[in-house]
Each structure stands twice: as C-alpha cells, then as structure tokens.
Amino acid sequence: MESNLHANTQLKDIKPPVLGVRGVELLVHLGCLPEERKEPQLVRYEIFFLFNHLPNGMFTDELTETICYAKVVEILKQAVLDKEFHLIEKLGTDSFLELKKEFKDKDVKIRMHICKVAPPIKEVRTGTTFELSEF
Fold this sequence. Notes:
Blueprint: H1 2-10, E1 18-30, H2 34-38, E2 41-51, H3 57-60, H4 69-80, E3 84-85, H5 88-102, E4 108-116, E5 128-133
Parallel strand pairs: 1-3
Antiparallel strand pairs: 1-2, 2-4, 4-5
Helix pairs in contact: 4-5
C-alpha cells in the first residue's frame, strides 16, 4: 500500500490517463440497400476511455480496477448481433450507448471511432467513418 501511495504522489501532476482498445473488427449487416445489408460488411472500431481519476488498476494490477478489453469486445458484439443497420451513424450510436451503459460505474468518458472499411462505392478507397466523443 505504501508503494501505491508513493506512486500516486509521483503522478499527481499528470493528465488523466486514456486507455485505448483499437482495431476491433466485426462483421455487420450494414448498408442503405437490402442487397448491401445481405452480406456482412467489415467494420473497425477504436474506443478510448478517459479516466476522470487515476484508475486503481495502475497500482493494484487488478483487472477489476480498470476496463477489460474482452468486455469491450463482447459489448460491441452484442450491440450488432442479429441486427441490420442502414447507417453507420445508427450503428455507432447504438454501440456507443451500450459502452456508456456498461462502464457508467468506472467514471470514464468515452470516444469511439467506427469505420466501414469497404463501402460499395469504388471511389471511396479507405472507408467511411463516424465518431462520437465525450472528450
């Protein structure tokens, strides 16, 4: 406990830490037209959690004291499971709200970036994106 207090004192002037979960790839039925939604589209997420205080996991090394990556992925999977989306904006909003609900007790702000990797428009080479952010 004494070393935790010492570390906490040494870190008193740092900005709030940010934890990122990047490159989460899911197949989603997404598209304006029924033909486009028929086959799942690759969607890539990047999620960042801004802690409003230093998370205890920094000192305890306990997973329960921070954000679990596997839980983040599971929440995103559940947000899209057996659903169809016409718009990336709706997909992003539903995903974001599920993350907010799950991690409300962790005292974090969330930023989520989502990319439809290969939209069916040949001139769009690197995907389309949507982002929601509390910071």
